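*** Backbone structure tokens ***
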Amino acid sequence: MDNQPNNIDTRSSNNYTQNSLSKIQTRDIFGAISPNQVTIFGQFYFKIVDNHTEILIKLNNIPENVKTDNQSKPIPNQLKISAATRAIDGLNYEYISLGTINMDEPINNLKSATFSTTIDPIELNKPALASAERIVFEPLNDSEANIFKDSNPDLPINVREKPAPYFWIVL
């Protein structure tokens, strides 16, 4: 016996040492810049630490506009990030604000952005990230709304009738 703290290495099945980064989970960030073409624009990293969740969002190679054959609209430089949880009636989403992401200055007509925060534990009437179906990136005001509508049958019916978010993460 000695006064030294215990030093235990946990090994995974492929014999690598597990550390604090081993528990990071990732999801793709999707977006549509033209009709019927969904593309991956980055990664969403999250890790549950004690009773809160740490998140990191990295967006890359974002064009300046979304386009159809006869219409073009700039992607806003600021987007609000929200966790979307299905409402009790099943027809809508309820949104919990996670913050605002700011795009970097375009390089070769492509933007990028990074955002990180900590989501506090469950509060009264606020679902945890674990109960969210999606994380969505939407404009700060309605005049900057996307020109596309997301007709995915997995979405609540009332959400399919509204402009799609510029980017989304399926949890």
Observations:
- The mean pLDDT is 86.
- Helices lie at 157-160.
